[in-house]
Specification:
Belongs to the nitroreductase family. The chain is built from 7 helices and 4 strands, in the order H-E-H-H-E-H-H-E-H-E-H. The protein is an alpha+beta fold and 205 residues long.
Length: 205
């Protein structure tokens, strides 16, 4: 399961409803993830209302279009490496497909965390490390139950607008938006990755 939980974009079933009970099962598992100081400051917003999903999708689409034209977009990376550039174009193509349809995905799950006093200065790994593992656990649980997901953060360009739309308090920050739907097809396999020895450092860099 760990090696075949892929970002599902083109193969999300946009027409099949997802039972809330199934989403709750996945979130119950997510709550078993580690959290700094056992603070459990996470909050989960599950959006199924059609109008709110469309509004979030519109914000996401706006952000996607800016990102797509930037040098850091997936399709513009590794252009000097023919093998990797082909994979990057596939990623960009599927991301564009999802961006055009984000508001149609049956369930949008937003992982948030309480941040009293605002975001800390400097390295924020401790803060987000208390939320993002739980979001990944949710995605793994969804995979085990026939649901596809994708890790997305482009909505954060409109974090304030989405917070107002959903009534999110000012001391709660959004971490990731996870579109969730049944997936079509069963051909998930381990992804092509850099060899371990290219990124492994023993005792020193």
């Amino acid at each position: 399961m760990l090696t075949t939980t892929r970002s599902v974009r083109k193969r999300l079933d946009l027409t099949r409803p997802v039972p809330m009970g199934l989403v709750r099962e996945c979130l119950e598992i997510a709550l078993q993830a580690p959290t700094g100081g056992n603070a459990q400051g996470w909050h989960w917003i599950v959006v199924t209302d059609a109008a709110r999903r469309k509004a979030i999708g519109d914000y996401y689409g706006r952000s996607w279009r800016r990102y797509y034209d930037s040098e850091s977009s997936a399709g513009n990376l590794f252009q000097d490496d023919p093998a990797r550039s082909v994979a990057q174009r596939r990623v960009s193509d599927s991301a564009a497909y999802l961006a055009d349809r984000m508001g149609e995905v049956p369930v949008l799950v937003m992982a948030c965390i309480t941040v009293p006093g605002g975001l800390p200065e400097g390295n924020q790994a401790g803060l987000w490390g208390s939320l993002l593992p739980a979001a990944w656990s949710y995605m793994l649980a969804a995979r085990a139950r026939g649901l596809g997901t994708a890790w997305t953060t482009l909505h954060l360009a409109y974090e304030g607008e989405i917070a107002e739309l959903l009534g999110i308090p000012g001391d709660v920050r959004q971490g990731v938006l996870v579109p969730t739907a049944y997936y079509t097809g069963e051909t998930f396999r381990p992804a092509s990755r850099q060899p371990l020895d290219e990124v492994l450092h023993l005792d020193h860099w």
